[in-house]
């Protein structure tokens, strides 16, 4: 028989028996029979090779190698399959390395908010929530902001045109400050009060590296007997120190908010050369008029309130220079936190 035909026959027979081997022992017997180093059939065929003529040699040699490779591979495959019966049956191979799945993580601002709540919680402040779609009463009236106040200008707020019509309860707007939650809390609970409320606020500002039309504020409110501005300043300083990990100076600049009296802008600085004051929010003593409008007795209780920019703090701590990065949805940025 010509050597090529013999190799063909060898290949077919070997592949057939390999496929039919039902367990590793049977497969090993097939291996010895066909590829065994001493008496395997391939060994016999190899000796034939020596006898073919010069012209035929390259063709037969090539086919010999091909057959050897193919039969060896088939043996290996079958062995793997028999070693893992579940896979052979088309099931799940639990011994394979797993498909790596990359875990996501909290957005840096959400991490910040989480930490804010944690820190303020240690000072005895519980977290309260309020709606982002507000009515004019909670966003303005109850906060002493009358109808003719410029803060109510439609150009400075995101009014929801259709909402009032749909609910019949007057115009609605995206809240422009978290101070709304002060009112919602005081409407429900009696003093003493110690709450924070962290969340989104909306203002039609021109967007740049430090301004956004949507940002986050942390509102703080503490009402009780003889609460003073000294406590306000201390709470702000302790809070900033806990979050930033180093001490800060807190500076109050006289200012005006309709719902606090006196009112201040809050600036922060720290001991680094050439560090200017950084404005972090507004604060003040809750206006007696606001206290009495929610049924508190301004002669018996007093309180402070503050509103801080969450992004400001987070940017300061991590050296983030552009507020737009928070909403850029860029994983290169997000992965760093
Ligand atoms: N709500 C004010 C603002 O958004 C900040 C503030 C909060 C001022 C509480 C006084 C008291 O600008």
User: Spatial order of the strands in the main sheet?
Assistant: 1-5-6-10-9-8-7
CATH superfamily of the largest domain: Bira Bifunctional Protein, Domain 2
Contiguous uncertain segments of 5+ residues: none
- Any idea how many domains? 2
Please tell me the CATH architecture of the largest domain by its name. 2-Layer Sandwich
Specify the helix fraction band. 40-55%
**Count of DSSP helices?**
13
The separation of the N and C termini measures: 74 Å
Structural class: alpha+beta
The SSE order reads: HHHHHHEEHEHEHEEHEEEHEHH
Listed once per kind, the bound small molecules are: phenylalanine
- Major sheet summary line: 7 strands, mixed
**Strand tally:** 10
Query: What overall form do the CA principal axes indicate?
Result: rod-shaped
Describe the structure.
The structure is a single chain. This protein has 337 residues and is an alpha+beta fold. It has two domains: 3-83; 108-334, 2-Layer Sandwich (BirA Bifunctional Protein, domain 2), CATH 3.30.930. It has 13 helices and ten strands. The strands form two sheets. It has a seven-stranded mixed sheet with strand order 1-5-6-10-9-8-7, sandwiched between helices. Helix 6 (108-122) packs across helix 12. The longest helix has 27 residues, at 57-83. Bound molecules: phenylalanine. Phenylalanine is lined by residues 177, 179, 257, 260, 263, 281-284, 305-307.
